[in-house]
Structures are given as C-alpha cells and as structure tokens.
Design goal:
By secondary structure, the protein is an alpha+beta fold. Helix content is 38%, strand content 26%. The chain has one domain.
C-alpha cells in the first residue's frame, strides 16, 4: 500500500499532514513539517506508521508517573 503526502492550502500557506508513531496526526507549515520529519524520523512521518510499528512504540514508552498518580 502506498500513501501520498497530504497537503493543503491554509490561509495563504501550504501545510503538510505529518503522522506520529502513536497514531496522532497534525497539519504543519510545509517547512516545519519537513524539519520535524527530518529531525525526528522515528517519531514523525509523512505517511501513517503501520499498526505493528505503533504497537512496538507503545511498548517502548515509559509510564508517566504523573498519570499513574491520577489513576489511584
């Protein structure tokens, strides 16, 4: 399956959709999106990460102690 880079014109600028390893996505100015993906390729991509990559990343994320405190 191939994915194309999603872009849009927004208030006179070009934005590109970037995808985070945890399944989130965000629209960023094109220059910022390229910088984000270039500097953090294990966390951000122009195309969605596979379900297997997302599961593996979730296993590698340490528990946030602040969130654990709220659960009790």
């Amino acid at each position: 399956m191939t994915h194309s880079v999603e872009s849009r014109a927004h208030y006179g600028t070009t934005q590109i959709k970037v995808h985070r390893i945890n399944g989130e996505s965000a629209w960023q100015a094109s220059v910022d999106a390229r910088q984000t993906v270039r500097e953090h390729p294990d966390e951000w991509s122009f195309t969605p990460f596979s379900a297997a990559e997302q599961r593996a990343a979730q296993r590698d994320i340490p528990a946030d102690p602040a969130l654990l405190d709220r659960a009790s």
